[in-house]
Structures are given as C-alpha cells and as structure tokens.
Amino acid sequence: MTELASPPDATALPTARLGAIRGLFREIGDLKRVRVAHADGSAAQRAFVRAWAALVAGADPGRVAAVECAAALAGARLAGVDAGVLVACGLPAADTVEVLGRAVDQVSGGLHPCAVARAHRTLPELVDAATEAGVGTAGAGVRGGSGGGTALASGALPPFVGALCRQPRAGATAPGRPRLIVEPPENHGEHCWAVAVYGALLAEDLGADPGEAFLLGLAHHLHNAALPDAGFAGDTLLGEHVDALMMRLTARELATLPAPLAARVEALLDRRADAATPVGRAFHAADVLDRVLQVHHHARAAGFTADQALVDLDLVHAGPVTDYHTAILAAADL
Predict the structure, then answer these.
(1) Is the dihedral of CA 205, 25, 290, 116 positive or negative?
(2) Tens digits of residue pLDDT in 190-223
(3) 8 A C-beta contact, residue 96 and residue 86
(4) pLDDT per residue over 7-43, tens digit each?
(5) First-to-last C-alpha distance (Å) of the chain
(6) 152 and 292 fall within a common domain
C-alpha cells in the first residue's frame, strides 16, 4: 500500500483543488488524441495496455499507478516525447529526467503535494525502464515501437485488454432520445486509463490509496469487453437485466486474470456502488470528470477557430524569418 495523507475530512474534494486541476486533467485527457509514428494507438491506449501488462506480470498496483501518473503528467505537455523517445534519441539519463521534471512542474501546481512529490520520485524509473528495454540508440528504439519504454514488466495480456481498446464509448445518450454521435469516439481503454490516472492523482485529497484508485479505474468497464456500449439509454432499455448481465460478463473477464489480481480487482469493483468510501469517492470524482471533459473536448473541437492558433497560441511565433512569414501570409490574405 502507498503511504497515505490523512486529511481531517475526506468526504469531499476541496473546491479550490477541483478548480486548480481542471485544466491539468483536460491536458492529460488529450493524450487520448496523441499518436506517434513508432507505435499503434493513442498514448492513452498504449498506457492502458502497458499498465495491464505490468499488473498481470505481478507488479504492485501502487507502483504501476506512480509510474503511469508520472508519465501522464509529463505527457500533458511533452505529448509523444516520452522517456523512451528521449533515451532512444540519445539524451543522457540525467537530462531526460530533467526534461520530464520540467514538464511535470509546468502542469502540477494544483495537485496535492504528495502526488507531485511521488511523480518526481518516479521519473528516474521511467528513464531506467526505457534504458533497460534496449532503446539506447535512436533508430532501434523508435522503430521497435516500445511505446515509450515505461512498461514495468511484460506478460501475456488477457483478451479483454485488446477488446476494450477496440470497443468505442457510446458518448452522451438519454432514454427516449436519439443519440449524439461525435467523431472520433474514444475507446474504453482510453477512458479507463484516464479514470485510473485521475483517481490516483486525487487520492490524497480523499484519503484513498492511489494504487487502489488506479486499479479500480483501470478495471471498471471489464463487462464492455464483450458488451458494446449503448450508454445510459441502452442500460435503461436493458432494464432489469443490466445488473446480472454486467456481473456475469465481469466475472468472465476476471477469470482471465491471475487469481490474486482477480481477487483484488473484484473487491475493488464493489466500491463502485457508492461514494461512501475514500476509494469510491476517488473513482466517482475521476469518472465524472473524464466523462464531462470528453464532451468539452468535442465541443472545443467543433468550435475551433484559426485565431486560437494564430493569436492565442502564437502559431507564427517570433524567429529569424518572422518578417518573411508575415509577408507571405499577407500576400496570401491569411
């Protein structure tokens, strides 16, 4: 178990904390959209697979949570430039840790100090894992598709991992209403990864164990490996059958895990029922934040304007050829 902070009242997240981490969680969630040439799937999907590989191989959930949260915090700003890429491109280990640490510092100001300290302590592990994976030369590591080299261990993956990465999320649905289709949809692996990371990062604020919050988030949609997602509207139509169906399908997927891990996951899944426990509160906070942030992403994408890139993000930024760029754009009436 990870050593926990002991807040005097862990029944609700401080309002100030939620406001402070909203932007960070949005950036972490954008790793669902980040892709690289040397590996398949989004950064979030690859992290979901990596985490399950480590857990199945016997890694402690607290350590997996620490590694993946550190990678996610750095990735919020570095995107696909992760520890594996930096090591593969020849950056020395100490410099790689420094670069990752800069990225963490840029985004983590609103987090609980324990979560930030844990991320910084864990960054050298990301670099060590990348080095041990044999990505010390630029060509081999990148072409090999290491996914960043942050896997804690390798092992045979249960089939539900790949299935959840192929299973699209339903998005926003309501009983008796046509569904709202947004493209591209996230998949269940990406959503479960985001909930796992958010829950672990919020754990100290709620008196929860980060490893437990991470594991519950990672596993909370096991039933959707077989059951396509029809959303709340579909669950309503399934009616009295939905609970038994979910339990049966979840048990089937749990049976593909090593027995100790399956028992631990099964016990945690019971905490989804309410927000009466610290881990339940961490999970439900993370889950609802990810669902709503995903909708905000689609709204932002639909409302994107050129000024956001040109003015807000300074797309054509100052440099030795700025005057030439400006002249070209003026001539093109852009």
Answers:
(1) negative
(2) 999 999 999 999 999 999 999 999 999 999 999 9
(3) yes
(4) 434 455 657 778 889 999 999 999 999 999 999 999 9
(5) 57
(6) yes
The number of folded domains in the chain is 2
What residue type is 189 in one-letter code? Answer: G
CB 195 within 8 A of CB 268: no
> Which stretches within the chain are classed as H helix?
15-29, 43-56, 61-78, 83-88, 93-107, 113-132, 138-143, 159-166, 188-206, 210-219, 231-238, 242-254, 259-269, 278-302, 306-307, 322-331
d(CA 272, CA 246): 13
201 with 222, same domain? yes
Q: Are residues 203 and 68 in the same domain?
A: yes
293: nearest Cα among 126, 38, 95, 44: 44
In this structure, the dihedral spanned by the alpha carbons of residues 247, 230, 274 and 239, taken in order and rounded to 10 degrees, is: -70
DSSP code at position 225: G
Query: What is the domain extent for residue 321?
Result: 306-334
In a domain, 176, yes or no: no
CA distance 21 to 55: 27
- Residue 319: DSSP 8-state: S
